[in-house]
Design a protein that fits this description.
The structure holds three protein chains of three kinds. Chain A is mainly α. Chain A is built from one helix and no strands. In chain C, α3 packs antiparallel against α6. Classes of the chains: A mainly alpha, B mainly alpha, C mainly alpha. The interface between A and C is medium-sized, with 24 and 31 residues.
Chain lengths: 48, 219, 224
């Protein structure tokens, strides 16, 4: 494999890692959003 | 406090002498690994001598981890830990007495392992046994302290058997490396190398475990 | 949704600018190295990742200690966030280092002290991630993770020392001949860029953790 390809591979791998990590964060935020919605939707039922 | 520690240690010893649960299982496991090892590695030629120190400690790691994982099994099932703490036993005493007992158990495994190696791998150890035992006992101190600590950390977890190796193995590695090299130097008829390193790590791990143990049991 | 800080868009823009600048410097400004050729440019990323890794893991230890002492939720959240980002950078260090090693040393992996230590760090904190995933919602789980963050990071110099003592040192990467000025600037900018990135990621993860804990509390209250 050509030398420059290794260079490209390294940076590509790094950015992929980063994107994956941010994706995981985003997924966690979505989960929180769902949980919050579920929590809020329950509110009217608990009021007297 | 010292009296408490001894009492706890003797209790553990008595229970083990009566039930003998941990010891036989890990002895059998050690024997099994020794046998498997004979297929995995060349054991009948000169090359074998290269593998022996590493293989010994590899088997020791696995067998001792089995024992260490269950260090607090009895206390956990009976809720004894909280009882001891309420009775005024310090967390550190709990750690030290349990670690002492564990050290005894895992050292016995290591002791049996050498005759097994002598028989199955034709390792001439007769004259070297005292030094090999010294290395075993010294390394066992660090193993027992850190292992007991990790076992306490995971005592309530149903996934304990899996997590113990995951957590324990990487942490104990700095101790295993000099142990292997010390063993290697003895088997190669050289002066023993690395004992000071083993001792320093024992002290370091011991100090860390001692300082942090209270946090583990109070929660 | 995420608790925002004043001017967060501006900060994000600055971060993006930093990263783009760093990449531009690496690829267009930094000179090509004599012996290694273009591949040497991986090291800017690799070394910056090493800096980010150690700083994040150290912060993880710091906040874990604060959490053990104070039992306050924010310190646990910051500790987890720092460790997770540190873990990300550890992965990056291992991967970029390996990719650099193949053309330069001829092998994807070697067992010298630095590499072995980094791999051990990765293994220790892999256990941390698993532990957190399974038991992070419990207080005891948080305590275990805090302890592992402390023990794990303190073990790092021990591992390094132990391996070096008995395995010997690999030829040094940065020779004593010094580093050319454009290279130095590129390296510095890249380090700053990655540290800024790390800070941003830590903050995001921290915010998620705090929200998660608060939601958990509300949910418990709802049950009653």
């Amino acid at each position: 494999m050509d030398s420059a390809n290794y260079l490209a591979l390294a940076y590509l791998v790094f950015w992929l890692l980063l994107v994956g990590h941010v994706g995981k964060l985003w997924h966690q935020v979505q989960q929180l959003r769902r949980d919050l919605d579920r929590l809020l939707s329950k509110q009217p039922h608990t009021q007297p | 406090m010292k009296v408490c520690g001894w009492a706890l240690f003797k209790k553990d010893l008595l229970v083990e002498l009566r039930t003998q649960e941990s010891l036989w299982i890990s002895l059998l496991f050690a024997l099994l690994l020794t046998v498997i090892g004979s297929f995995c590695f060349p054991t009948t030629n000169n090359l074998a001598q290269l593998w022996i120190p590493g293989l010994y400690w590899l088997i020791y790691i696995f067998a001792s981890t089995i024992i260490l994982t269950n260090a607090f099994r009895q206390e956990q099932s009976e809720g004894s830990l909280q009882a001891f703490l309420l009775a005024g036993v310090s967390a550190e005493t709990l750690l030290l007495s349990k670690a002492l007992y564990q050290w005894l158990l895992i050292s016995m495994i290591g002791l049996i392992l050498w005759p097994l190696f002598a028989v199955f791998y034709q390792v001439p150890i007769a004259a070297k046994l005292p030094r090999l035992i010294l290395i075993l006992l010294l390394t066992g101190i660090g193993f027992a302290l850190l292992g007991t600590f990790c076992a306490a950390m995971l005592r309530a977890s149903p996934l304990r058997q899996i997590f113990m190796p995951l957590v324990f193995f990487p942490l104990i590695l700095p101790l295993v490396i000099p142990a292997i090299y010390a063993t290697q130097s003895v088997l190669a008829d050289q002066p023993v190398r690395g004992l000071e390193v083993i001792l320093s790590f024992d002290l370091l791990f011991g100090a860390l475990a001692y300082m942090l143990f209270a946090h583990l049991v109070e929660g | 949704m995420i608790p925002s800080i004043k001017g967060s868009n501006l900060l994000l823009g600055l971060l993006a600018l930093l990263l783009v600048t760093a990449m531009a410097l690496v690829f267009f400004f930094a000179p090509e190295e004599k012996t290694q050729g273009v591949v040497q440019k991986i090291l800017y990323l690799h070394l910056a990742a090493v800096a980010a890794m150690y700083i994040c893991l150290f912060l993880g230890l710091l906040f874990a200690a604060i959490f053990l002492a104070s039992k306050q939720a924010w310190s646990d959240a910051l500790s987890v966030a720092s460790v997770e980002v540190g873990y990300l950078f550890t992965t990056a260090v291992l991967l970029t280092g390996s990719i650099w090693a193949k053309p330069v040393w001829g092998t994807w992996w070697t067992w010298d002290a630095r590499l072995t230590t980094t791999l051990l760090i990765w293994l220790i904190f892999s256990a941390y991630m698993l532990l957190r995933y399974h038991f992070g919602h419990l207080h005891s789980g948080k305590v275990w993770c805090a302890i592992l963050a402390i023990l794990g990071f303190l073990d790092v110099p021990l591992i390094h020392y132990s391996v070096r003592l008995f395995r010997g040192i690999h030829p040094r990467v940065i020779t004593a001949g010094g580093i050319a000025t454009p290279m130095l600037w590129t390296l510095l900018v890249t380090i700053v860029a990655l540290l800024a990135l790390a800070a941003c990621l830590v903050y995001l993860r921290y915010a998620v953790e705090m929200l998660r804990q608060r939601l958990q509390q509300f949910m418990l209250m709802q049950e009653e």
